[in-house]
Amino acid sequence: KPNSNGNPTGSPASLTGDIDGNGVVDITDLSHLALYLVGDKNLEGSAMKNADVDKDNTITVGDITGTASIILKYLLENTKTIPNNSYLFTTIVSITSIAVNTPKIPS
Question: What is the pLDDT of residues 2-30, one digit of tens each?
């Protein structure tokens, strides 16, 4: 169900895509996931579980696509919010593109 900002919400411990654990799937979660994939952020516990959007037990670019899909699906289902979220849409596409084209740096 949406919060007052129009983002999907749920229990942080179990909300697929909610990487930062604030109970909302939003652009911040997408950013955390992209940073993880390029080696600039560590994820543990429920963040790691929620980041595995496609439930294949591996965090990959597919999970970025899945997280972006969660956000975009909500926006498309609630068309009244789309004009106010054009920047969000552009940012999602940009982050997804960067993550897809950036190899993970070995630690």
Answer: 555 555 555 556 789 999 998 888 889 98
As a whole number of angstroms, the distance between CA 5 and CA 83 comes to 13
For residue range 29-52, list pLDDT tens digits in order.
988 998 999 889 999 999 999 999
Which phi and psi angles does 11 have, rounded to 5°? Answer: -70, 125
Ramachandran category for residue 17: left, alpha or beta (phi over 0 → left; psi -120 to 50 → alpha): left
Residue 1 contacts residue 77 (beta carbons within 8 Å): no
| Cβ-proximal residues to 39 (8 Å cutoff; 6+ apart), any chain | 104, 105, 106, 107
Distance CA 11, CA 77 (A): 21
